[in-house]
Specification:
Elements: E1 2-5, H1 10-20, E2 25-28, E3 46-49, H2 57-65, E4 70-73, H3 83-88, E5 92-94, H4 101-117, H5 119-127, E6 145-149, H6 153-164, E7 168-172, H7 178-182, E8 186-187, H8 190-196, E9 199-202, H9 216-220, E10 226-230, H10 239-248, E11 251-256, H11 278-283, E12 289-291, H12 300-320
Parallel strand pairs: 1-2, 1-3, 3-4, 4-5, 6-7, 6-9, 7-8, 9-10, 10-11, 11-12
Helix pairs in contact: 1-12, 4-6
The structure holds nicotinamide-adenine-dinucleotide.
Protein name: Hydroxyacid dehydrogenase
InterPro entries: D-isomer_2_OHA_DH_cat_dom, D-isomer_DH_CS, D-isomer_DH_NAD-bd, D-LDH-like, NAD(P)-bd_dom_sf
Domain D-isomer specific 2-hydroxyacid dehydrogenase NAD-binding: 109-296
């Protein structure tokens, strides 16, 4: 099958070619999928897209008109796809429902440990010969309460790691998981989670219900000094509200791997340009904010699994007309 791979970085080429083993004809296109670039597919039966590719109705219409039959997402999340438009245009959408939950969960832990013990600041200080400890004070994780919003694949792995640190772990999820509850996670209503947590980690999908879940009203319910970690999707957090929370001191630390307007920033080297997003630029000024550019998934194991499942989806679609992991409905 001819496959046009959008947003293709060198690592995408490496892992996809390895998983493909010559089965499909892969064309790697560095550009993001957009209204402008959709016509580069040149009749490819499948389009392979990532999290910041544009899969809105007009792009889907162009893809359908140029002969695309399958959209194979290299991601678990599919909030960026207009599924109704895809269905109406007769396009099948596939995703990678699970690759390495460890990759994202461990990255959330990396953000927590860095923010808590200020290793991001200590690194620079020590290189400049500054061995002062003022401003680097952290807290023991043992005994602290960690609140997890969303105990799916990633949330469960994260919960087990935090239980291992000796934390009390509470969670909120419309579908509580009996196994993780048996291991020590206590399910509570969301408001109770906001009020009781020292650290809040977001591991839910972006849906109409979770859009701006962390807003002024939610922050007002939190403990003073709370740490908020978001490795899910940017729009789960209202960035302007967390800036107010940081300024007032209610939010003591903020770790973001995702940002609502990340499509204009992430995955590119913009170091020689001015950042025109003033909200993002303001977030970067806080010493207690740590932002990574959507790298939670970025481990060898996760990239191998993403590539293998993606090629599996394309092969199954080619031979049976149905991918292994179709996206059939909107998330919860
Ligand atoms: N940073 C990254 O690189 C990266 C990588 C992969 C996934 N993600 C994000 O992480 C999210 C979670 O991934 P996953 O594999 O654990 O998904 P999953 O589908 O296994 O789990 C999601 C969980 O969230 C719960 N949920 C849904 N709505 C909720 C709500 N309103 N409140 C609380 N919980 C709710 C679901 O019931 C489910 O248990 C993905 O949707 C994606 O947005 C980020």
């Amino acid at each position: 099958m001819d496959v046009a791979v959008f947003s293709a970085k060198p690592h995408d080429r490496q892992f996809l070619e390895q998983a493909n083993g010559g089965r499909h004809r892969l064309t790697f296109i560095e550009a993001r999928l957009s209204d402008e670039t959709a016509r580069f597919t040149d009749g490819a039966g499948a389009v392979c897209a990532f999290v910041n590719d544009d899969l809105s109705a007009p792009v889907i219409a162009t893809l359908a008109a140029t002969g695309t039959k399958l959209i194979a997402l290299r991601s678990a999340g599919f909030n960026h796809v207009d599924l109704a438009a895809a269905e109406a245009a007769g396009l099948t959408v596939a995703r990678v429902p699970a690759y390495s939950p460890h990759a994202v969960a461990e990255h959330a832990v990396a953000l927590i440990l860095t923010l808590n013990r200020n290793t991001h600041r200590a690194y620079n200080r020590v290189r400049e010969g500054n061995f002062a400890l003022e401003g680097l004070l952290g807290f023991d994780l043992a005994g602290k309460t960690v609140g997890i919003v969303g105990t799916g694949l990633i949330g469960q792995v994260f919960a087990r790691i935090m239980l291992g640190f000796g934390c009390k772990v509470i969670a909120s999820d419309p579908y509580p998981n009996a196994q993780i509850a048996a291991e020590g996670v206590r399910y509570v209503p969301l408001d109770e989670l906001f009020g009781a947590s020292d650290i809040i980690s977001l591991q839910c999908p972006l849906t109409p219900e979770t859009h701006h879940l962390i807003d002024d009203a939610a922050i007002a319910k939190m403990k003073r000094g709370v740490m908020i970690i978001n490795t899910s999707r940017g729009a789960v957090v209202d960035a302007s509200a967390v800036i107010r929370g940081l300024k007032s001191g209610v939010i003591g630390a903020l770790g973001l791997d995702v940002y609502e307007e990340e499509a204009a920033l992430f995955f590119e080297d913009l170091s020689a340009r001015a950042i025109v997003d003033d909200v993002f630029a303001r977030l970067l000024t806080f010493p207690n904010v740590l932002i990574t550019g959507h790298q939670g998934f970025f481990t060898r194991e996760a990239l191998t699994a993403i590539a293998e499942t993606t090629i599996g989806n394309i092969s199954a679609f080619e031979s049976t007309g149905a991918p292994l992991h179709p996206v059939s409905a909107k998330p919860l």
